[in-house]
Amino acid sequence: MKGTILGIEKNLEETILNFLKGGLEKGCFDAVITPHRVPSGDSFAYLLINDKSILEGAFPLSPVIPVQGAKAISSLTRKGNASKKILVIMHPCEIRATIELLKLKQVSLGNLFLMSFDCPGVIPLSDYIEDPGKNDQISQDNYQNWEDISIRPICKICTEFSSGPADLHIGLLGADTGKMFLIPLTSEGERIMKAMDLKIEDSLDRWEREVEKLKKEREAKRYEAHEVLKSNVEGSQKLLETFSQCINCHNCMRVCPVCYCRQCYFDSDAFKLPPENFINRAKKKGSLRLPADTLLFHLGRMSHMILSCVTCGTCEDACPMSIPVSQVFSLVADRTQRLFNYKPGSSKEEPLPVVIYKEEELHDVEKPYSEIYAKRGEKNA
Question: Cys-Cys crosslink for 93: which of 41, 154, 191, 312, Cβ 3.0 to 4.6 Å?
Fold first, then answer.
């Protein structure tokens, strides 16, 4: 595997921005989508940028994820491919969610080029807004020392922190001080690099070794974290206690990139029940918490999207009660996805289980109804 070693100029962020400006000048792409600091200074929003002067205030390595990038892409391309060539730079988990939405026909990636980077993890949103300046510096330092003290719990056990199904990737692990790797992952990535006169001839052996080393460390941490989590949440009573602080705001659902239903069942008229329903349930149990069915909401959401959950942590960031939503979902997601031998967002070609299946696969889980019916017929004859 080959790439290009680039010198970091003033700082990493500026070097990436100069690459993006160069791509716009050379016509490699017509626009860029990247996080940009909001006017209040304490958060970031994705901007579709045509004017390269606006890139000056962009933060491709945003220290937080207030809006999951896959939702930004969905808002742009839900109705079809972009008419102009656009480069999108996002955290690896945002790109993996985008790929899941592609399989669910919620985004179109024609004319879009995806660019990722080695991600040390992001800062909890609630921590960041307390002191943006201090946390900007912590985030920049994290890209140098890869310490996991200040990042979100789910980022500390993320094993998919590096390249995925992007066109271009920025490799930081294993690079000499003041250097970074620019890596083409597709023919489109190669085309862009060649158009920018970048020779794809440098070895990526050190980057690959460091990525593999950190991945093994993270896998061990993830296993340990899940073992602890299991003891805290496994079983209906413990799960009920875990979500007992839920205030039914549904923020976790609204920020989740994979929860794309135009109307959630739990917000629909079907879930608006007559008073007698609640009164009867209260009679049976002695009391009934209102609003009711908060745990049912989380279980329903979980069953709906767990195969595509990339454990990006956005749901946990959005929870006003600090419930470890993403950590619980990561535990269930790992188990469920392992059953299907499926890694969400890792490949555009890998079909999404359940959505795409072969008819004969149904025989793996149950006998055909016709066979059961025939046996009943024989018995009754």
Answer: 312
Q: Kind and range of the H or E element at 103?
A: helix 92-103
- What does the DSSP assignment read for 246-268? --S--HHHHH-SS---SS-GGGS
**Helix count and strand count (H, E) for the chain:** 15, 8
Residue 50, number of CB atoms within 10 A of its CB: 12
CA dist., res. 87 & res. 49, Å (int): 10
Rounded to an integer, what distance in angstroms lies between the CA atom of residue 195 and that of residue 25?
11
For residues 168 and 16, give the distance between their C-alpha atoms in angstroms, rounded to a whole number.
Answer: 12
Chain segment 367-380, per-residue pLDDT in tens: 655 565 555 555 54
Amino acid identity of 209?
R
Cis upstream peptide for 324 (omega within 30°): no
Mention every residue, 6+ apart, whose C-beta is less than 8 A from residue 235. Answer: none
The reported pTM is: 0.91
Q: Quick one: pLDDT at residue 381?
A: 45
Residue at token pair 């004859």: 381
What region does 344 belong to: left with phi over 0, alpha with psi -120 to 50, or beta?
A: beta
Task: Kindly tell me the burial class for residue 127, based on how many C-beta atoms sit within 10 Å of its own C-beta (0-12, 13-18, 19 or more).
Answer: middle
Closest CA to 73 of 318, 304, 261, 257: 257
